[in-house]
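Our example pasted here:


***
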Amino acid sequence: MQIDLIKCHGSGNDFLLIDEISNDYTFSESERADLAKLLCNRNTNLGADGILFVLNSTHANGRMRVFNADGSEASMCGNGLRIVARYICEKLQLKEAVIETMKANLRVSKQADLYPEVETYQVEISPVSFQLKDLPLYLDQSTLQNEKIEVLSDQLRFTALSVPNPHLISIVESEEILQSNLQKQISEKVNNPNDLFPDGVNVSFVKPLKQGHIYVRTFERGVGFTNACGTAMSASSLVTYLQEFNNLDEVINVYNNGGRVQCIVHSVDGGYSIDLIGNATYVYQANVNVDLAGETFTIDEKNEFFEQNAYEKLQTDAQRFLKEMREG
């Protein structure tokens, strides 16, 4: 089969976007999973963290489905949603839109550039739940906020929440903890067969830098360590507010290995929602000839967008800031 796609990224969290609105693709559910496993393989000349399928919606401006590189479907993806927001807004010539996702219809909008010549979009991250049954996390309690899970670590405290992807967040003060293998060990334990998280969980270590600035490193369920995870950065921003490192309704600059985004935490009807603001960068457009039965593909045509240079300047500034914070 012939497939047109766009290689794109949000904060270095990279995807292949496939438009099912303009094209008459008819993928089965197994084909979606197989496409993700084949095309996202890092050992090929495409490679990505996942595929964004953009579809028509009966009650929104468009619909997003996200398949991880391992073929599993994610209920939400904040970095991917920014990409889909750009695609739908440009396609329909809108400044604001509503995108249907697995668990909610979410508001998105075009924003002023986060950095010169970096296409920037704001997306709504919700619903937010602290109920362990919504992750799920099997503990003899209904919520977990800044508490230990002894079987995972005798030194770290965790907060569990869904946004709606499941997240386990630990705020760490020591740079040594960030550089250790502890996060990898914990993440692999809860994403392999285990008694706590039957469906796995995204695990983030968060280091407060100064008021309004945090660093987030995430092991993403179905992917592994990524440059950035949008829902993880959003969830981490909420947790830093709850632990009084940051303020409600104020911009939190979130640094990651892929660059920088901004998050704003809001109190809504006794709960919370989060705005995620960041880049939506196109890398190239490609026409791919896929043989799913043979598990092979070829790239027949590739056209660069030339947007990556501007984003790399943002990355350089973000890394410079992190270096300054580490050196005091």
